[in-house]
Design brief:
single chain, alpha/beta, Aspartate Aminotransferase, domain 1, Aspartate Aminotransferase, domain 2, 2 domains
Length: about 500
């Protein structure tokens, strides 16, 4: 039973045909509170990206028009979430706010035991400290940056087991996030089951374009895990979008509700963890399970690294918002918003001949930087260069998802990424259609001027997660030339 009797009920996705024939995403919300934006002139944007070391993470929001860096913690809060924050029970231990969150997790994910954490990577820290030891191998469909870092810091390594065609940029494969079962069996056999502490599946695989896996594939992975008595871990940070794609693309579940699909996905996993910054529009995260022995294994680490067992490093207001946001994730008119806008932009960019990841996934629109900038060698970071160039000519902050987001080997050489992507994230219910069309227009113009863009090189490089704080510089004067071309074609227009 929901603790919020007026919370949104399951409702069907709007199917609206426009007389013009255009496939335009329809917002199922109205705007009641607004935040002022700023669009600095191109000269100021050039100065800003230089100050930031050509790293869009180091820009300030006053220098950004549309912030498409990430959907993490940037989704729009609903009126129900804002209202729930007012009933926060600010207790260090035994808070009723935590109990409401725990009940929401049990209702939505079907898991009884909950360990709160301040965000997803904090949950990864707890899981890896508990399960990973030197020499271990963790099979997964694909890695995420913080996941890889935590596994390696604890002495483990990963095996990425996507099907070979999953890394094709242009594809009609509806489930590029699927794990190859033959590869999984081979990894367990060759490395030894005693050295495989966990199998991990990531919902809507972030680094290959927010691509989902099918529920049929998840069931196959779960069967292999059970056969070898290996716990299956589900990273559920983008589980809502993955469930939406299952409903849209997997025939068995076309008549099922997103709520039922979500519970069935989680039922396959022994451990589910998530970042609430993505899954429910608020801050925080959690680890959840139905196995008391798994809960007991990890719970002592929560007070050490996060906070007490009933707040886990979060404020009670965040916990209240999470409880409501989790339930809203099962509302199809909420969860379909980002995928619809992403698909719209992907289709519009394809019409201009701009290379993008297809089929359209969750999280954001992903532009293929290696095809966009074939003249830039991968060692000069084409995805980072494209992110910097796009900010310069638009004021839109996207994110590099390529070799800058990778790391170096023991000899100091870059481990080149499988794909070089510019990610333009679509936080839920944040951007308007006109803003989306502005992104399309500026990216279209940049594509016509792509030969002007050059590469980047590091000047300050942190040893871990370098994409967050590293600084780079242009290998030539290409930023000035690109600014001049912008002024030539747009004059005094911002």
């Amino acid at each position: 039973m929901s603790q919020f009797p007026d919370s949104p009920k399951q409702s069907a996705s709007p199917a609206v045909r426009f007389f013009s024939g255009e496939n335009i995403p329809l917002e199922m919300h109205k705007v009641r509170v607004v935040q002022k934006l700023n669009l600095p002139p191109v000269e100021e944007r050039l100065a800003a990206i230089r100050r930031a070391g050509f790293n869009t993470f180091l820009l300030t929001t006053r220098e950004v028009y549309l912030d498409m860096l990430t959907d993490s913690g940037t989704n729009a809060m609903s009126d129900m979430q804002m209202g729930a924050m007012m009933q926060a029970d600010d207790a260090y231990a035994g808070s009723q706010s935590f109990e409401r969150m725990r009940l929401a997790i049990e209702e939505v994910f079907g898991k009884r035991f909950v360990l709160p954490a301040h965000q997803g990577r904090a949950a990864e820290n707890i899981i890896c400290r508990t399960y990973v030891k030197p020499g271990d191998l963790l099979p997964m469909n694909y890695h995420f940056t913080t996941t890889l870092a935590h596994i390696e810091l604890n002495g483990g390594k990963i095996a990425e087991l996507l099907h070979d065609e999953a890394l094709q940029i242009s594809s009609s494969n509806p489930f590029k996030g699927n794990m190859d079962i033959a590869k999984l069996r081979h990894a367990i056999t060759t490395h030894g089951v005693q050295n495989v502490p966990l199998i991990r599946m990531e919902a809507s695989t972030n680094l290959i374009g927010g691509q989902p896996f099918s529920l049929a594939n998840l069931r196959e992975v779960a069967a292999v895990a059970k056969e070898h008595n290996i716990p299956l871990v589900l990273d559920a940070s983008l589980i809502g979008e993955n469930a939406w794609f299952i409903k849209q693309r997997e025939p068995e579940f076309q008549q099922a509700s997103v709520a039922d699909i979500l519970r069935e996905m989680c039922a396959q996993a022994d451990i589910v963890y998530f970042s609430s910054r993505k899954v429910s529009s608020s801050r925080g995260g959690a680890i959840c399970t139905n196995w008391p022995e798994i809960f007991e294994k990890m719970k002592a680490l929560i007070p050490l690294f996060e906070g007490f067992l009933t707040y886990g490093g979060m404020s009670m207001r965040e916990i209240e918002a999470m409880a409501v946001g989790l339930r809203e994730t099962t509302d199809e008119t909420v969860i379909n918003q980002s995928p619809m806008f992403i698909r719209y932009l992907v289709e519009r960019l394809q019409a201009h001949g701009i290379p993008v990841v297809t089929p359209a996934g969750g999280l954001g629109c992903h532009v293929d930087a290696m095809s966009f900038l074939p003249h830039i060698p991968q060692k000069e970071y084409p995805a980072g260069a494209l992110a910097a160039a796009f900010y310069l000519i638009s004021g839109v902050r996207g994110m590099e998802r390529g070799t800058i987001s990778s790391t170096r080997d023991q000899h100091g050489h870059d481990i080149l990424a499988d794909v070089e992507l510019l990610r333009l994230a679509f936080p839920r219910r944040v951007f308007t259609l006109s803003q989306t069309k502005y992104v399309e227009d500026r990216l279209h113009w940049l594509h016509t001027q792509r030969q002007l863009i050059g590469g980047l090189r590091f000047v300050e490089e942190p040893p871990v997660l370098r994409f967050f704080m590293g600084r780079l510089e242009a290998v030539s004067d290409w930023p000035e030339k690109l600014m001049q071309a912008f002024r030539r074609d747009f004059g005094d227009s911002l």
